[in-house]
Structures are given as C-alpha cells and as structure tokens.
C-alpha cells in the first residue's frame, strides 16, 4: 500500500520490531489520536499566550509542572529533542571552559559540547566485555582537568544509559561527586526517563535531558524535555532581552506541533509503565539467557539492567559465510518469521531491544533466533 | 462540533484502537477472547458512525 509515492509503514502492526532506537518511542493509541487531531502546522498555537511553555490551552504549562515533579526536578521546558536540551544547558553554561563526559556518550552530546565551545574530556569505559563507566572515575577526571587547564570543568555530563551496550550507570554516585566538586551535573536520560523511574533530586542532578520520541512513547516528530533544579532558571531559562516570555536556549518556542501533544497524551501511560520496569528487565535477561545457549555472547554489563541488548554472535557470522544470502540471511530469515529491527547485513554484532513486548512475543523472538542458529 | 465531523474523528480514533490490538498481537494476530470482543466492538462502532454519516449526506 502506498501514500502517494511513500510506502506505508506497518512494521509495528505487522512485525515484532526489535530496533532499540524505536521501541521506547512506540506511540500509544492516545498519542496517535492527539497527533491526528493536532497534525496541522502550528495547531498547538490556537490559544497562544506568547510562548509555548506558558500556554494553558492545551495545558502545556500544567503538563510541564507535572513532568518536573515526575522527574524530581523543579522546572521544565519542551525542547526539539534530547540533544537540543543538552545543547541548551551547555550553551548557557559555557564560557569556553571544559566539560567532563562519559566515554559511552551519544555522538550528539559530543557535537553539542563542541558547538557550545567546550573542551571535551572523557571518562573512559573499562573495555571489553562490559564497557562499564566507573562513577568514581569522575573525581579523577575532574582532577586531571584541573591539572591540565588550571580549572575544574564547567559541566559534567553522564549518559545514564548508553545507546551501545544499554549499561545503566549509578547516576547518584556521579551526582555526589559532582556536588562535592561543585561541578554542575547534566544527566542524559534519553534511554532511561520514560522507561524507568528517575528522581533528579535523589540523583543530585542539576539538569535532566529527556527524549520523548525515544523513551516517552511520543511520535509525530521530535520532542524532548529539559528539566532543571531550582536556582538555574536565570541562567538556563533566561529570556530574550526584548522578548521576556521567550527562553533563549529553546529559541523562544521549541516543538510547535503534534509531537508535544503526543508526549502529553502518552504521559499518563508513561507514568504507569515506569512502575513496571522490573518486568522489562526480566524480559531482557530471559532473552539473553536463552540466546547464550548458542555461540552468542551478550556485551555490556551482566546481568542486564536494561532492555537494550548488544550481542556478539559468531554463530550467525559462521552461517553467513556459506549462506547464499551472505550476511543478509539473518535479516531476511527473521523478516520471514515476522521480526524486524535488525540492520540488514549484520551477523557478527548487533543491538536489539525487548522493550514493550509481551512475554509471548519475547519467547517467540527467542525461539526464532534459536531456530535460525540451530539451537 | 458538527455531528458528522465528530463522528469522523471518532472513527479515526477507533482505527487507532484497532491498530493498537494489531501491535500487541503482532506478527500473527492470534486474538484471545477479550481481544476478539474488542475488535468486533470497534468494527461495530465504526459501522454505526458510517451509517449515521451516510444517512446524513443522503438527505
């Protein structure tokens, strides 16, 4: 079926989608209803009060208050995505000093820091096979930066859950070190908030960046959240000189469309689903345990504490050597079984996610991999 | 909101509820009794709205 020249996308309805980038942003029916209703350009601005974040019809202002509470923070703004939230903080803080980031950070964190004129230092992971970030290495990192530049960094960034291995870092430990050093702490929760409970106050975060389309069941475009602790409003939510209702760092109004409504419509579901996070972790651990019956090794921390699973799969690589479809055999065999989300051509190392799948679906996925691998 | 417009949106929303069931039961859509009931109810609601709109525009 086509929409003009566009292919209809039915992979959520017709397949089990394992793409880690997409599983947490799979929309709820309510989100899609909101998108249908608010799909037109600037539809969110019917009752504009001068800026997006103070709009009360629809009640964006009230929603942002609820989101702040949900994250254990004090204030929040909608952003065009998580990267825009991170960049907003970096740009507001930067005086051309340095930033300490984890070595597993997303590329957009590094690019944001570069754009904000910050010199980037990294806390390395501990290498194969777990690639873990050790929170206490932040203290060592601060001291190294002081030795090299004469000053502690202007900001520290931690990727709470990285997008490569799905490792969950002890953010509270990093927060404590940052607070001890009086270094502002930015927590990137693109793969955590919206999936699991996050309490910024307990963590000691000054700023939390969230991705609506990655982990809050929002779609219809890009949408993020920047939540901050009291005391940072004047710097990070500073308005324009001649535009007193327009925060500079989000260029006044950020996401001016249906994606913000989708985020709002999904929020009641998100608030409930984070309470079931333990069950999501169980599914992920189950799949790993099943797949490791074959010549497959899970990379990243063990046992898993997240749904994003990185696998090293010599068993499939071996089959690809003699299969007529070469490295593409795995993608096509899974597709024939009703499973998508794998990158075509990958057989040695790849990432999958079990987030939001039912137990029946997880068990079926396991059976399919085992069948293809000869288990 | 005019009735036919409201019913048009309502049908679009029922379709989203139906999509949700296909998503939860992918890839084989083997429905349990409860899901079967839900699907039939959704279809019935859409049919009712179609009938009302048909009657309205045929006048």
Textual characterization of the structure:
Chain B: It comes from Candidatus Methanofastidiosum methylothiophilum. Chain B: This is Four helix bundle protein. The complex is a heterodimer of chains A (375) and B (59). Chain A is α/β, with parallel strands linked by helices. Chain A contains 15 helices and 14 strands. Chain A has two domains: 2-25 and 277-372, Aspartate Aminotransferase, domain 1; 29-273, Type I PLP-dependent aspartate aminotransferase-like (Major domain) (Aspartate Aminotransferase, domain 2), CATH 3.40.640.10. In chain A, the strands form four sheets. A seven-stranded mixed sheet of chain A has the order 4-10-9-8-7-5-6, sandwiched between helices. Chain A has a three-stranded antiparallel sheet with strand order 11-12-14, with helices on one face. The model of chain A has no long low-confidence stretch (mean pLDDT 97). Chain B has one domain. The mean pLDDT of chain B is 96.
Strand content of chain A: 5-15%
Return the CATH architecture of the largest domain in chain A. Answer: 3-Layer(aba) Sandwich
Radius of gyration of chain A: 22 Å
Global outline of chain B: elongated
Largest sheet of chain B: none
Write down the oligomeric state.
heterodimer
Most extensive chain interface and residues per partner: A-B, 17 and 13 residues
H/E order of the elements of chain A? EEHEHHEHEHEHEHEHEHEHHHEEHHEEH
Say how many strands of chain B there are: 0
How large a portion of the residues of chain B is in β-strands, by DSSP E?
under 5%
Instruction: Report the uncertain regions of chain B.
Output: none
Q: Care to count the β-strands of chain A?
A: 14
């Amino acid at each position: 079926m086509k929409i003009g020249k566009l292919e209809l996308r039915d992979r959520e309805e017709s397949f089990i989608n394992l793409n880690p980038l997409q599983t947490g942003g799979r929309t709820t029916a309510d989100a899609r209803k909101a998108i249908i209703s608010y799909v037109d350009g600037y539809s969110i601005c019917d009752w504009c009060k001068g800026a997006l974040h103070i709009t009360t019809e629809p009640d964006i202002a009230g929603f942002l208050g609820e989101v702040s509470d949900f994250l254990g923070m004090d204030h929040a703004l909608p952003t065009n995505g998580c990267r825009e939230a991170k960049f907003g903080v970096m740009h507001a803080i930067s005086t051309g000093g340095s930033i300490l980031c984890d070595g597993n950070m997303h590329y957009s964190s590094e690019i944001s820091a570069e754009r904000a004129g910050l010199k980037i230092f990294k806390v390395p992971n501990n290498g194969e096979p777990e690639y873990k970030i050790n929170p206490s290495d932040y203290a060592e990192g601060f001291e190294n930066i002081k030795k090299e530049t004469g000053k502690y960094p202007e900001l520290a960034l931690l990727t709470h859950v990285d997008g490569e291995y799905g490792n969950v870092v002890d953010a509270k430990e990093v927060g404590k070190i940052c607070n001890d050093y009086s270094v502002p702490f930015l927590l990137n929760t693109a793969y955590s908030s919206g999936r699991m409970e996050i309490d910024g106050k307990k963590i000691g975060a000054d700023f939390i960046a969230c991705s609506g389309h990655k982990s809050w069941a929002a779609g219809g475009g890009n949408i993020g959240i920047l939540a901050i602790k009291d005391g940072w409003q004047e710097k990070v939510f500073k308005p324009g000189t001649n535009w007193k209702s327009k925060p500079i760092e989000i260029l006044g109004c950020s996401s001016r469309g249906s994606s913000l409504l989708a985020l709002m419509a999904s929020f009641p579901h998100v608030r409930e689903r984070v309470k079931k996070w333990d069950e999501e972790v169980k599914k992920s651990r189950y799949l790993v345990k099943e797949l490791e019956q074959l010549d497959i090794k899970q990379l990243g921390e063990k046992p898993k504490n997240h749904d994003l699973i990185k696998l090293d799969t010599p068993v499939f690589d071996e089959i690809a050597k003699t299969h007529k479809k070469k490295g593409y055999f795995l993608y096509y065999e899974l597709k024939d079984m009703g499973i998508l989300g794998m990158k075509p051509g990958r057989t040695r190392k790849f990432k999958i996610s079990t987030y939001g799948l039912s137990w029946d679906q997880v068990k079926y996925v396991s059976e399919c991999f085992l069948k293809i691998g000869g288990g | 909101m005019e009735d036919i417009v409201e019913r048009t949106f309502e049908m679009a929303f029922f379709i989203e509820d139906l999509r949700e069931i296909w998503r939860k039961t992918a890839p084989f859509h083997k429905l349990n009794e409860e899901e079967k009931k839900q699907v039939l109810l959704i279809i019935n609601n859409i049919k009712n709205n179609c009938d009302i709109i048909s009657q309205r525009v045929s006048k």
